[in-house]
Design goal:
Blueprint (H helix, E strand, L loop, with lengths): L8 E6 L5 E5 L21 E3 L2 E3 L2 H19 L10 E6 L5
Antiparallel strand pairs: 1-2, 1-5, 3-4
Length: about 100
């Protein structure tokens, strides 16, 4: 759910070259992407006597990996590749 006071995106400004880029709110904070129970339980890849099966956890792991890759791309300056930046929320102004 989106609250009206939450910014939908953040602007990052590179500390080295001054370039700026926009980042969606879900990638603005540093988070540890983890999936509870991904290493055990009935929903992980199982290689048994009759072949291997996949469950919902496999799809979740792949989705988390894709998000981590996109977050890593947004963490560096697109102009110079620096990881030093400041960020502030960008809020839309409606009349």
């Amino acid at each position: 759910m989106q609250f009206p006071w939450q910014a939908r995106q953040y602007e990052r400004i590179c500390a080295d070259c001054g370039s700026s880029w926009l980042v969606p709110r879900e990638f603005a904070r540093k988070r540890v992407l983890s999936i509870a129970g991904a290493t055990s339980g009935p929903h992980v890849r199982y290689r048994g006597r009759y072949g291997s099966t996949t469950g919902p956890a496999t799809a979740d792991i792949q989705a988390a990996g894709a998000m981590a890759g996109q977050a890593a791309t947004l963490r560096v300056c697109p102009k110079c590749g620096s990881e030093h930046f400041s960020q502030h929320p960008v809020r839309s102004r409606t009349a």
